[in-house]
Amino acid sequence: MADTQYITTNRLSQEVNQTRLWVAIIGAPVAGFFMYQLPNLWWIIGLIYLFAIIGAASTKRSGARGELKTLKLLKKLPDNYVLFNQVDVPNPRAKRGFTELDLIVVGPNGVFVVEVKNNNSKVTGDEQVAHWTAHKVGRKGGRYTAKVRNPIKQLKKQVHVLAEHLKRNRASTWIDGVVFFSHRGARVKLTSPPSVPVLERKGLVEYILSYTPKRAPSNIETVVQQLVALKQAIN
Question: What is the CATH number of the domain that holds 200?
Answer without folding.
Answer: 3.40.1350
